[in-house]
C-alpha cells in the first residue's frame, strides 16, 4: 500500500491563528457553562432546595442547549458564523447573570435554561468556523486541541466551582463567565469577517418549532419518568406520544422544506449517521459520569467540593491526552476509524470498573478508573466532527456539525435524566431499608452536612446506600458504551481532504440541489 500523502501546511496567516484563538475561548466558555456547576450542586440544592432537584439544574441547561443546536447550525449556514456566534454569547451571558441572581430553585432552573439557549450555539458555531478556514486533513489536529480544551474544562470547571463555593459564594460560579464572554466577543469582533453577500433565505419555522417541541417533550419524559411520575403514568405516556408525533411531523416537514433545519439527506450519509449515534451513546456515559462522580466523592467519600474536583484530574488527563493524540494521528495518517473503536472499548471498561466502587475503595484505584473513562471519551468528539465535516457538502457543514452536537447533547440530557431516576429510586429504596422507623427516608433532605450530622451507625448505613445506589448508574453507562463500540465497526472511512474546496464525491439529488441553489453553494449532495 502506498504511503499516505502528507497534509498541506496551512498558510501562515495571523488572522487564522486569531480565529482559532477566538474559537478556543468560545469553546472554553461553553464547556465551563456545562461543568462548573457540578461540584457546586450539593451546596446550591442545600440552600435552595432538596437533592431531588439536583439533576434539573443540569437538565435545564442541557435541554435548552440541545433543542437550539440545529437551529444555530442552520442560521450559521444562512447568515454567516460571526453574527450568530455573537448573539449566542450575549444570550449565554444574560443567562449567567440571571443564574447568579436566583433566590429559588425554580428561578435558577429557568435562568440555566436561558443560559443554555446561548450555550447551544457556542460550541456548534465555533466548531463550524474551523471548517470554513482549515482543510479536513489539518482539522484533526485542531479539533484534537479543542477536545483538550473541553477536557481541561471538565476538571477546571468543577475545581473552580468547588473553590468558589468554599471561599466566596455559589453565585460567582456564574458571574465568572462574564470576563471570558466579553473577551470572546472582543476577539470575534476583530478576527471573524462577516458575510459580505446578501441572499434571500427561506426560514424553516415549522421545522424549528417541531424539532424543539419534540426534543423537549422527549427529554422531559425521561426526566420526570420514574421520579416525579410513574413511567406508565398518563403524564409520561402523554409526553412520549407528543414527542413521537412532533418528531414524525418534523420529518414530514423537512422532506418538503426549501431549506430544512436538519436536511434528511444527512441521515443517508454513513459517516454522519454512525458518528451521531456513537456520540449519542458516549454523551450518555460522559455527562452521567461528570454529574455523578462528584456526588459520590462528596456524599459517599466525604471529601470537600474542591477536593472532589481535584480527584477528577485523572479523567481530565485521559481526555486531554487521547484527544490530542487522536488529532495528531488523524492529521498524520489521514485515518480515523480505529480511534473511536479503541476509545469506546476503553470507555466501557472504565464504566464497568466505576460500577464496582465501594466506600473503602482506595483513591488510587478510583483515579485509574476515571483515567480510563476520560481516555475513552477524548477521541470521540474530535473524530466525529472532523469525519462528518469531511463527508458532507460545505453548504450543509453547519447543519451537519449541529446534528453531531445535537445527538451528543440529547444523549447527555437523557443520560442525566435516566441516571438521575435510577439513582433517586435506588437511593430511596435503600434509605427506607436502613433508616430508623419513623425517620424521613426521602432523598431531598440529604446533603453532605445532613449526612455528617447523623449518628455514626446510621451514617455508615446511609453512606453505603449512597454508594450502592450509584452502581446501577455506571452499569447503565457501560451498556451504552458497549453498544457504541459495536456501531464503530460499521463506520465508513473516507480520505480526509487536503483542500477546503474539495467536496465529497456524491451524486446530486433533488433535495440537496435545491438547498445548495438557494444558499448559493456548490450543488453536491450527501450520499
From TrEMBL:
This protein's UniProt keywords? Cell membrane, Membrane, Transmembrane, Transmembrane helix, Transport
One GO cellular component term of this record is: plasma membrane
From the Swiss-Prot or TrEMBL record, give the protein name.
DHA2 family efflux MFS transporter permease subunit
Which InterPro entries does the UniProt record give? EmrB-like, MFS, MFS_dom, MFS_trans_sf
The main location is membrane
- Name the NCBIfam families on file: efflux_EmrB (TIGR00711)
Gene3D superfamilies (alphabetical):
MFS general substrate transporter like domains, Multidrug resistance protein D
Q: A Pfam family name for this chain? A: MFS_1
Subcellular localization, as worded in the UniProt entry? Cell membrane
Highest taxon listed in the record's lineage: Bacteria
Read off the PROSITE patterns from this record.
Answer: MFS (PS50850)
GO MF, one term, reads:
transmembrane transporter activity
Membrane topology classification: Multi-pass membrane protein
- Cite the Major facilitator superfamily (MFS) profile domain residue spans from the record: 19-496
Q: Where are the transmembrane segments?
A: 18-41, 53-72, 84-110, 116-134, 146-165, 171-192, 204-225, 231-253, 274-297, 309-330, 342-360, 366-385, 406-428, 469-491
